[in-house]
Design a protein that fits this description.
This protein starts with a helix and ends with a helix. The protein has two domains: 1-49; 51-121, no CATH class. Helix 3 crosses helix 6 and helix 5 runs parallel beside helix 6. It has helices spanning 2-19, 21-48, 53-59, 64-69, 73-82, 97-118. It is mainly α.
Amino acid sequence: MIDKAIASLLKVISAEASANPAFARKMEEALDTFAHDYVERRRDERVLSGFNPFVEFKKSPQDFDQRLSRFDRNQLALIIEKHGIDPARSVNSRTSKKKLAEMVAAAAEKRAARDAKVFDY
């Protein structure tokens, strides 16, 4: 059922793109933007694979800020998203790299303090 719906939708889009050059240009631009964003996100995910800010902070709290500084703004935003550091979703495209790094560091420090209390017998 869904295959038929998608196929008919693509036929309509293809027919409109053939008949309307302006629509075809807008579709190409949208697909190019999507593809570019997708490739960048996958690249960032590969760079961040294996990086857990909470584990990294516990390894060496003194060097944590230095390790965070090697990431760019988009990678820090991905860390925040991946690890649920910003449940209020206050991070937006205008949030600076410095602010993002501070958010990650504060969350890691808070988690380490909480874990120390939990495992303190």
